[in-house]
Automatic annotation (TrEMBL):
GO CC field: plasma membrane
Protein name per the record: Tetraacyldisaccharide 4'-kinase
GO molecular function: ATP binding; lipid-A 4'-kinase activity
Residues that hold ATP according to the record: S58, V59, G60, G61, T62, G63, K64, T65
Pfam family, one: LpxK
Gene name of the encoded protein: lpxK
Pathway given in the UniProt record: Glycolipid biosynthesis; lipid IV(A) biosynthesis; lipid IV(A) from (3R)-3-hydroxytetradecanoyl-[acyl-carrier-protein] and UDP-N-acetyl-alpha-D-glucosamine: step 6/6
Length: 321
């Protein structure tokens, strides 16, 4: 965590105070943009199938990808055909691209590639989510579109907004970028249909989600890894959560090497590591082409109580009636 990110999670930090004027300017720009869309001066585009937004109001990992995978699995099990659109963060994309299991993360983004490999749903990436949705519908018959990380993409009309919140880090110092971690004010949560807190509690939450780890798997074969001494490697928004997950799964973390979120890994990043490596599944999709036999990833899955799962699915299915 760099100095700027550290300031976000310590109230009254000198750097956050210094950046308050820029945060005020950021608030003015985002407020004006939302207002222009609300007044119809900026046009919104509606797709012919329901659109569900899965996003957050803060930067960093909140569990959107595990939740999107869970949601797609639930929809498929109930006979509904979902499709996924995403920005493709970290990749240079200027037109809609269909993501396949053989795609490269540098071409389509790490999270879309993970979604394509695990969701059994078509995935299209493009910074223009309207174009991504249209391309998806032109090539696949889907009943509903899940827009991953599209809360602030107001150009795309939506039927349901779901926001994920990290229950451990919460909203930091409560300030907007760059003085704090928030993309939008906390009051924005009052205007969405569902607020899901990941491993913790926030007063606005409707549902609580837990992330459950499964068996650590090899990047280059079918072998699995029992709890052992490992070096953690991660390029995600909240590496401390990954460290805690690994410890809870029984692994002894002897060293760690953390990079910025969406880091494009290369073999040189692992120089000097001679022990067993454990990484996230999102990072693993970027490392398979140069992985070694003692490199493993730890998958995690979203888990809900029966009551909360039913509440989520009832809201989704009401869009299809």
């Amino acid at each position: 965590m760099n100095l700027l990110e550290q300031s976000w999670y310590h109230k009254g930090h000198w750097l956050s105070l210094l950046l308050l004027p820029l945060a005020a300017l950021y608030w003015l720009i985002t407020w004006a943009r939302r207002r222009l869309y609300r007044l119809g001066l900026f046009r919104r585009f509606r797709l012919p199938v329901p659109v569900v937004i899965v996003g957050n109001i803060s930067v960093g990992g909140t569990g959107k990808t595990p939740f999107t995978l869970w949601l797609c699995q639930q929809l498929l099990a109930s006979g509904v055909k979902p499709g996924i659109i995403s920005r493709g963060y970290g990749a240079r994309i200027n037109r809609p691209l269909l993501v396949s299991a053989e795609s490269l993360a540098q071409d389509v983004g790490d999270e879309p590639l993970l979604l394509a490999r695990r969701s059994n749903c078509p995935v299209v990436v493009c910074p223009d989510r309207v174009a991504a949705g249209r391309a998806l519908l032109a090539t696949h018959k889907v009943d509903i579109i899940i827009c991953d990380d599209g809360l602030q993409h107001y150009r795309l009309a939506r039927d349901l907004e779901i926001v994920l919140v990290d229950g451990r880090r919460g909203f930091g110092n409560g300030l907007l970028l760059p003085a704090g971690p928030l993309r939008e004010p906390r009051a924005r949560l009052k205007k969405v249909e569902l607020v899901i807190v990941n491993s913790g509690e926030v007063v606005e939450a409707n549902c609580q989600m837990q992330l459950r780890s499964s068996v650590a798997r090899s990047l280059v074969g079918d072998t699995v890894l029992s709890p052992a001494d490992v070096t953690l490697v991660a390029g995600i928004g909240n590496p401390d959560r990954f460290r805690l997950t690994a410890i809870q799964a029984g692994f002894n973390v002897t060293a760690q090497r953390f990079f910025a979120d969406h880091h494009q890994f290369c073999a040189a990043d692992f120089a000097g590591i001679n022990t067993t490596v454990l990484m996230t599944e999102k990072d693993a999709v970027k490392c398979r082409t140069f992985a070694r036999e003692n490199w493993y990833y730890l998958p995690v899955d979203a888990d809900f109580s029966t009551e909360h799962a039913a509440e989520i699915m009832n809201k989704i299915k009401s869009l299809l009636e």
